[in-house]
Amino acid sequence: MNKLKKEPLFKVKDLVIDLYTEQVSVRAVDSVNLEVNAGEILAVVGESGSGKTVMTLGPLGLLPEGVSVDIRGQSQCSGQDLLNKPARELAKLRGENFGIIFQDPISALNPMKKVGPQLASQAVRLRGVSKQQGKEIAIELLQRTGIPDPEDRYNRYPHEMSGGMLQRVMIALALVGNPKILIADEPITALDATVQAQILELLKDIQCRENIAIILITHDISVVAQMADQVAVLYAGRIAEYGTMEDVLTRPVHPYTKGLLSSVPDLRSKRGENASGPAGITGSPPDQSSLLPGCRFVERCPVAQTFCSKFRPPLEVLPHLSQRHFVACPVAVESTIEQMEGEAYEQ
After folding, report:
1. What region does 186 belong to: left with phi over 0, alpha with psi -120 to 50, or beta?
2. How far is CA 235 from CA 214, 345, 347, in A?
3. N or C, which terminus of the chain has less Cβ within 10 Å?
4. Strand pairing partners for 74?
5. What HEC string does the chain produce?
6. By the 8 A CB rule, do 170 and 104 touch?
7. Considering just the CA atoms, what is the radius of gyration of the chain in Å?
8. How many angstroms separate the CA atoms of 279 and 281, rounded?
9. What is the pLDDT of residue 347?
10. What confidence score (pLDDT) does residue 174 get?
11. Cα 64 to Cα 39: distance, rounded to the nearest angstrom
12. Environment class of residue 11 by beta-carbon count within 10 Å: exposed (0-12), middle (13-18) or buried (19+)?
């Protein structure tokens, strides 16, 4: 008897997100499909403005105020639909399943309240415990996230703590509700290199010990190589390449992915002097308020053909290489297949 395929913990299908202000409308996310399993780290990588944060936080109702949002498609967690839910139901579902680690913890915490009581009040709200139990949970979480002398730090204000300690508090806050999924939105950008390594090690340890899924939003390829199981490369609201970390980083196919990798010197040197792809990416991303038909990357692509400006490339599995490696570029896929067939013929 065939085993039934296990349902992913989180998935989006044909997700489209349009943002509207009084002046302009933007197609921020355009027909995205991806999924995350329990205990897995999915890195969403791309340049600033590619739609990484909107794609992840939009379905959770966490976009900034003052922007009208139109979301279509499917977004599910543990089989439950996140879209088209009343605000109260969505907030409950979000609190039970997701923990959010924001890029700037100082703006996510109330500067007028001590950090410990902020954690304790969330424990009371999300776990339904008493105030004393909430305080005990808060101190335990501070200790669990590597904060020394947690009883003392419980009574500190945010401004009395370093950036690294505040990010640990932010991680503790994200863990209060015993989430199934952590969303880490550029969690180490404002930290120095030593603290960055410590925070990444902490996240990896949490993921391994508790089987929590992590969606890691980043533009740092070295972090992706260090942390990710799966990688989704996002460009102008569309996925350009999607697959395992090993496939995407060591056998990139899409010209945009190659460009991202070639812009990182240490990764480029590991791939060798003869690695294909441009040394970085020329030009700028397109204006997503006035997008043209066809491939979003066409004006910056070194292998673009005439039809690329008219034909929207679908995200398709790469034949002969991996059933979990998807690429949205028929030109690059054809070139890769020809190269592989040539290498097989020579052998």
Report:
1. left
2. 21, 35, 36
3. N
4. 13
5. CCCCCCCCCEEEEEEEEEEECCCCEEEEEEEEEEEECCCCEEEEECCCCCCHHHHHHHHHCCCCCCCEEEEEEEEEECCEECCCCCHHHHHHHHHHHEEEECCCHHHHCCCCCCHHHHHHHHHHHHHCCCHHHHHHHHHHHHHHCCCCCHHHHCCCCHHHCCHHHHHHHHHHHHHCCCCCEEEEECCCCCCCHHHHHHHHHHHHHHHHHHCCEEEEEECCHHHHHHHCCEEEEEECCEEEEEEEHHHHHHCCCCHHHHHHHHCCHHHHHHHCCCCCCCCCCCCCCCCCCCCCCCCCCHHHCCCCCHHHHCCCCCCEECCCCCCCCEECCHHHHHHHHHHHHHHHHHC
6. no
7. 21
8. 7
9. 55
10. 94
11. 29
12. middle
Q: What is the pLDDT of residue 275?
A: 45
Q: Are 142 and 172 in contact (CB under 8 A)?
A: yes
CA distance 260 to 221: 8
CATH of domain 10-111+157-346: 3.40.50.300
Q: Could you identify the residue written with the tokens 């997700």?
A: 15
Q: In what order do the strands lie in the sheet with 10-20?
A: 25-36, 10-20, 68-77, 80-81
**Residue ranges of the chain whose pLDDT lies below 50:** 1-3, 267-278
Instruction: Judge whether 321 and 340 are in contact, CB under 8 Å.
Output: yes
- Residue 296 class from Cβ within 10 Å (0-12 exposed, 13-18 middle, 19+ buried)? buried
Alpha-carbon distance of 200 to 298, in angstroms, equals: 35
Strands 238-244 and 10-20: unpaired
Cα–Cα distance measured from residue 111 to residue 107, given in angstroms and rounded to the nearest whole number = 8
Q: Please report, for residues 20, 123, 139, 200, the alpha-carbon distance to residue 96 in angstroms, rounded to integers and kept in the order given.
A: 29, 12, 21, 24
- For residue 321, give the amino acid letter: L
Token reading at 119: 């954690």
**Paired tokens of 303:** 């292998």
Q: What confidence score (pLDDT) does residue 172 get? A: 95
Contact 88, 77 (CB under 8 A): no
